[in-house]
Amino acid sequence: MVSSERSDEALQVSIDLWYPECWEIEITERLDIGILGYGIYMTGSEVATLFTIYADDHESVTEGIEAIRASEHVHSVSQMASGFRQASIPKPGNATRELLVIHDGRKQISQPLTSRGFVCTGPIDIRDGREYWSLVTNHGRETVRIKLDEVREQMNADINVRSMKRQNREDASTTLPVDQFTKRQLEVFQLARERGYYEYPKETSASALANELGITTSTLHEHLHKVEAVLLGRDGLTQLE
Fold first, then answer.
1. Nearest alpha-carbon partner for 21 in 106, 115, 124, 116
2. CA distance 138 to 150
3. Of 77, 150, 88, 78, residue with least CA distance to 115
4. CB distance 148 to 157 below 8 Å
5. Would you place residue 15 in the very low, low, confident or very high pLDDT band (cuts 50, 70, 90)?
Protein backbone atom coordinates (compact mmCIF):
# COMPACT_ATOMS: atom_id res chain seq x y z
CA MET A 1 0.00 0.00 0.00
CA VAL A 2 2.79 2.42 0.90
CA SER A 3 4.93 1.46 -2.12
CA SER A 4 2.17 2.50 -4.55
CA GLU A 5 2.61 6.07 -3.32
CA ARG A 6 6.34 6.21 -4.03
CA SER A 7 7.53 8.52 -6.81
CA ASP A 8 10.64 9.14 -8.90
CA GLU A 9 10.45 12.72 -7.67
CA ALA A 10 11.33 13.23 -4.02
CA LEU A 11 8.81 14.97 -1.79
CA GLN A 12 10.20 17.99 0.03
CA VAL A 13 8.69 18.38 3.48
CA SER A 14 9.22 21.51 5.55
CA ILE A 15 8.22 21.26 9.21
CA ASP A 16 8.65 23.06 12.49
CA LEU A 17 8.32 21.23 15.77
CA TRP A 18 8.54 21.26 19.55
CA TYR A 19 9.00 18.38 21.93
CA PRO A 20 9.69 18.18 25.67
CA GLU A 21 13.09 17.85 27.35
CA CYS A 22 15.01 19.20 24.36
CA TRP A 23 17.83 21.42 25.62
CA GLU A 24 18.26 23.24 22.29
CA ILE A 25 14.59 24.21 22.19
CA GLU A 26 14.63 25.32 25.83
CA ILE A 27 17.71 27.52 25.40
CA THR A 28 16.48 29.26 22.23
CA GLU A 29 13.11 29.85 23.88
CA ARG A 30 14.79 31.51 26.86
CA LEU A 31 17.55 33.46 25.10
CA ASP A 32 17.66 35.62 21.99
CA ILE A 33 19.87 33.23 20.01
CA GLY A 34 19.51 30.64 17.28
CA ILE A 35 21.27 27.32 16.81
CA LEU A 36 22.03 25.46 13.58
CA GLY A 37 22.60 21.71 13.91
CA TYR A 38 24.61 20.16 11.06
CA GLY A 39 25.25 16.55 11.96
CA ILE A 40 24.25 14.04 14.62
CA TYR A 41 26.64 11.19 15.33
CA MET A 42 25.54 8.51 17.77
CA THR A 43 28.10 7.03 20.17
CA GLY A 44 25.99 4.77 22.38
CA SER A 45 23.69 6.90 24.51
CA GLU A 46 25.73 10.00 23.66
CA VAL A 47 25.44 12.18 20.57
CA ALA A 48 28.15 14.34 18.99
CA THR A 49 26.70 17.28 17.05
CA LEU A 50 28.24 20.17 15.15
CA PHE A 51 26.43 23.42 15.92
CA THR A 52 26.61 27.03 14.85
CA ILE A 53 25.20 29.36 17.47
CA TYR A 54 24.10 32.70 16.05
CA ALA A 55 22.69 35.99 17.30
CA ASP A 56 22.64 39.68 16.49
CA ASP A 57 25.60 40.44 18.80
CA HIS A 58 28.60 38.67 20.36
CA GLU A 59 27.32 39.12 23.92
CA SER A 60 24.23 37.04 23.13
CA VAL A 61 26.38 34.33 21.54
CA THR A 62 28.57 34.16 24.66
CA GLU A 63 25.48 33.94 26.88
CA GLY A 64 24.16 31.12 24.70
CA ILE A 65 27.39 29.12 24.97
CA GLU A 66 27.32 29.47 28.76
CA ALA A 67 23.72 28.22 28.80
CA ILE A 68 24.67 25.21 26.65
CA ARG A 69 27.55 24.34 29.00
CA ALA A 70 25.21 24.60 31.99
CA SER A 71 22.57 22.23 30.57
CA GLU A 72 22.27 18.94 32.43
CA HIS A 73 21.87 17.18 29.07
CA VAL A 74 25.22 18.45 27.74
CA HIS A 75 28.42 16.55 28.56
CA SER A 76 31.03 18.73 26.85
CA VAL A 77 31.34 21.78 24.59
CA SER A 78 34.37 22.44 22.36
CA GLN A 79 34.74 25.58 20.27
CA MET A 80 35.82 25.04 16.67
CA ALA A 81 38.38 27.14 14.83
CA SER A 82 36.80 30.05 13.00
CA GLY A 83 36.12 29.27 9.35
CA PHE A 84 36.62 25.51 9.61
CA ARG A 85 33.36 25.01 7.73
CA GLN A 86 33.21 25.68 4.01
CA ALA A 87 32.43 29.29 3.21
CA SER A 88 29.57 28.22 0.92
CA ILE A 89 27.46 27.06 3.87
CA PRO A 90 25.33 30.01 5.01
CA LYS A 91 25.22 31.19 8.60
CA PRO A 92 22.48 33.57 9.72
CA GLY A 93 23.00 36.32 12.26
CA ASN A 94 25.63 39.02 12.69
CA ALA A 95 27.63 37.03 15.27
CA THR A 96 28.33 33.30 15.16
CA ARG A 97 30.38 30.64 16.94
CA GLU A 98 30.90 27.06 15.84
CA LEU A 99 30.78 24.29 18.43
CA LEU A 100 31.21 20.56 18.84
CA VAL A 101 28.78 19.43 21.54
CA ILE A 102 28.60 15.99 23.16
CA HIS A 103 25.17 15.51 24.68
CA ASP A 104 22.55 12.99 25.76
CA GLY A 105 21.05 11.37 22.68
CA ARG A 106 18.31 9.34 24.27
CA LYS A 107 15.57 11.95 23.76
CA GLN A 108 16.50 13.41 20.37
CA ILE A 109 13.78 13.50 17.71
CA SER A 110 16.19 12.91 14.81
CA GLN A 111 16.20 9.12 15.07
CA PRO A 112 12.37 8.79 15.09
CA LEU A 113 12.30 10.91 11.90
CA THR A 114 15.14 9.23 10.00
CA SER A 115 13.97 5.72 10.92
CA ARG A 116 10.68 6.49 9.14
CA GLY A 117 12.27 7.38 5.82
CA PHE A 118 12.91 11.11 6.22
CA VAL A 119 16.29 12.55 5.20
CA CYS A 120 17.40 15.94 6.49
CA THR A 121 18.62 18.10 3.59
CA GLY A 122 20.24 20.95 5.48
CA PRO A 123 20.99 22.40 8.89
CA ILE A 124 18.29 22.12 11.53
CA ASP A 125 17.44 25.72 12.46
CA ILE A 126 16.46 26.03 16.12
CA ARG A 127 15.08 29.43 17.13
CA ASP A 128 12.42 30.93 19.38
CA GLY A 129 11.75 27.56 21.00
CA ARG A 130 11.06 25.59 17.78
CA GLU A 131 13.09 23.41 15.45
CA TYR A 132 12.80 24.00 11.69
CA TRP A 133 13.55 20.95 9.53
CA SER A 134 13.88 20.60 5.75
CA LEU A 135 13.30 16.96 4.81
CA VAL A 136 13.00 14.82 1.70
CA THR A 137 11.36 11.43 1.33
CA ASN A 138 10.04 9.11 -1.38
CA HIS A 139 6.83 8.61 0.62
CA GLY A 140 3.56 10.00 -0.70
CA ARG A 141 1.74 12.78 1.09
CA GLU A 142 -0.67 10.53 2.98
CA THR A 143 2.16 8.30 4.21
CA VAL A 144 4.07 11.39 5.34
CA ARG A 145 1.07 12.42 7.45
CA ILE A 146 0.85 8.93 8.98
CA LYS A 147 4.58 8.81 9.76
CA LEU A 148 4.54 12.26 11.35
CA ASP A 149 1.57 11.24 13.49
CA GLU A 150 3.67 8.31 14.73
CA VAL A 151 6.51 10.69 15.65
CA ARG A 152 4.05 12.98 17.43
CA GLU A 153 2.82 10.08 19.56
CA GLN A 154 6.27 8.63 20.27
CA MET A 155 7.89 11.95 21.26
CA ASN A 156 4.84 13.83 22.57
CA ALA A 157 5.76 16.35 19.88
CA ASP A 158 3.94 19.30 18.35
CA ILE A 159 4.75 19.07 14.61
CA ASN A 160 3.52 21.67 12.14
CA VAL A 161 3.79 20.88 8.41
CA ARG A 162 4.76 24.13 6.70
CA SER A 163 4.86 22.81 3.13
CA MET A 164 5.03 19.65 1.00
CA LYS A 165 6.04 19.75 -2.66
CA ARG A 166 7.65 17.52 -5.25
CA GLN A 167 11.29 18.13 -6.18
CA ASN A 168 12.19 17.30 -9.76
CA ARG A 169 15.47 17.41 -11.64
CA GLU A 170 14.70 20.78 -13.18
CA ASP A 171 14.37 22.51 -9.82
CA ALA A 172 17.39 24.67 -9.08
CA SER A 173 18.87 24.73 -5.63
CA THR A 174 19.09 28.08 -3.91
CA THR A 175 21.80 29.20 -1.49
CA LEU A 176 20.95 32.49 0.15
CA PRO A 177 23.66 34.74 1.65
CA VAL A 178 21.91 34.58 5.00
CA ASP A 179 25.06 35.57 6.88
CA GLN A 180 24.12 39.10 5.77
CA PHE A 181 20.66 39.00 7.37
CA THR A 182 19.49 39.37 10.95
CA LYS A 183 17.61 36.48 12.49
CA ARG A 184 14.29 38.33 12.17
CA GLN A 185 14.88 39.29 8.53
CA LEU A 186 15.60 35.66 7.69
CA GLU A 187 12.48 34.47 9.52
CA VAL A 188 10.24 36.97 7.69
CA PHE A 189 11.72 36.21 4.27
CA GLN A 190 11.51 32.43 4.72
CA LEU A 191 7.85 32.68 5.73
CA ALA A 192 7.09 34.90 2.72
CA ARG A 193 8.60 32.29 0.41
CA GLU A 194 6.78 29.41 2.06
CA ARG A 195 3.42 31.19 1.88
CA GLY A 196 3.83 31.99 -1.82
CA TYR A 197 4.33 35.74 -1.49
CA TYR A 198 6.82 35.69 -4.37
CA GLU A 199 4.69 33.50 -6.63
CA TYR A 200 2.77 34.96 -9.58
CA PRO A 201 -0.01 35.52 -8.88
CA LYS A 202 0.70 35.99 -5.17
CA GLU A 203 -0.68 33.24 -2.93
CA THR A 204 -0.78 35.49 0.13
CA SER A 205 -0.80 39.19 0.97
CA ALA A 206 1.58 41.37 2.95
CA SER A 207 -1.13 42.03 5.53
CA ALA A 208 -1.74 38.29 6.03
CA LEU A 209 1.98 37.69 6.54
CA ALA A 210 2.21 40.60 8.95
CA ASN A 211 -0.73 39.26 10.97
CA GLU A 212 0.86 35.81 11.15
CA LEU A 213 4.15 37.30 12.36
CA GLY A 214 2.51 39.74 14.76
CA ILE A 215 4.07 42.82 13.15
CA THR A 216 2.81 45.79 11.14
CA THR A 217 2.69 45.68 7.36
CA SER A 218 5.25 48.49 7.16
CA THR A 219 7.66 46.51 9.36
CA LEU A 220 7.15 43.46 7.15
CA HIS A 221 7.99 45.49 4.04
CA GLU A 222 11.07 46.91 5.77
CA HIS A 223 12.42 43.42 6.54
CA LEU A 224 11.67 42.12 3.04
CA HIS A 225 13.16 45.16 1.31
CA LYS A 226 16.43 44.75 3.22
CA VAL A 227 16.69 41.10 2.17
CA GLU A 228 15.72 41.90 -1.41
CA ALA A 229 18.35 44.65 -1.56
CA VAL A 230 21.04 42.11 -0.66
CA LEU A 231 19.80 39.63 -3.27
CA LEU A 232 19.52 42.28 -5.97
CA GLY A 233 23.04 43.39 -5.17
CA ARG A 234 24.33 40.01 -6.29
CA ASP A 235 24.29 38.93 -9.96
CA GLY A 236 20.62 39.71 -10.37
CA LEU A 237 17.95 38.32 -8.08
CA THR A 238 18.76 34.89 -6.68
CA GLN A 239 16.31 32.35 -8.13
CA LEU A 240 13.56 31.66 -5.63
CA GLU A 241 11.92 28.25 -5.36
1. 106
2. 17
3. 150
4. no
5. very high
